[in-house]
Amino acid sequence: MTGISSTPASSKTGYSWRVVDIVVAALIAVAGGVIFWAWSQGATLITPATAAYPPLSGLYAGGWMIPAVLGMLIIRKPGAALFCETVAATGELIMGSQYGTTVLISGVLQGLGAELVFAAFRYKKFNLPVALLAGAGSGLFCGLNDSFAPWGWNIAYGAGDKLAYIVFCAISGAVIAGALSWIATRGLAKTGVLSSFASRKAASEPVFS
Residue 97 contacts by C-beta under 8 Å, 6 or more apart in sequence? Predict the structure, then answer.
């Protein structure tokens, strides 16, 4: 990544996307598409574990939200979360998703859920609490989509079970997508591969402020 561009994200381009932003966002999205596909395959394996209380499957959902949070934590430009999540969902569809074209709608909504959180902080805060909130926001939109959209797989749940599922999705998004993406970004920053981005100093940024 260091060889793509030497222009830091803090330059006068501001929130404008550079070529390096687009390239790296695409790489994150492609990797995310592979993660999505693998995560979807694994979803069938957890069915026996959640048979007693199906809404618990929401705790598995966070893996589908990683590109949204990770993409924004690295690129730090408006639209990064939505772009990475949507393109990742497109990649899963191309590879053959068991959820069909509805995966695209899920990708857009999950990306939007994270994007709105970062936007609420005016794209200026990327600490652990914000990453957790972004993951939870993505999970919230995932849970709402699965529970109330006509194509939602748990639309037949009762109100209490839907609420539980949505809460579990938000928790999973916060922990798996939020916390893990924040940790990964700090780790990448230490290697120097993020030198072209504002996130290049992520490893030394305060955790809570």
Answer: 36, 37, 40, 103
Contacts of 24 (CB under 8 A, 6+ apart): 1, 4, 74, 75, 197
- CA–CA distance, 86 with 133 (Å, rounded to integer): 19
Domain boundaries along the sequence of the chain: 19-46+62-204
Burial 69-90 (b: 16+ CB within 10 A, else e): bbbbbbbbbbbbbbbbbbbbbb
Q: What is the DSSP letter of 201?
A: G
Per-residue pLDDT tens, the chain, 209 aa: give them.
334 344 444 444 478 999 999 999 999 999 999 988 888 888 888 888 899 999 999 999 999 999 999 999 999 999 999 999 999 999 989 888 777 899 999 999 999 999 999 999 999 999 999 999 999 999 999 999 999 999 998 999 999 999 999 999 999 999 999 999 999 999 999 999 999 999 999 999 999 98
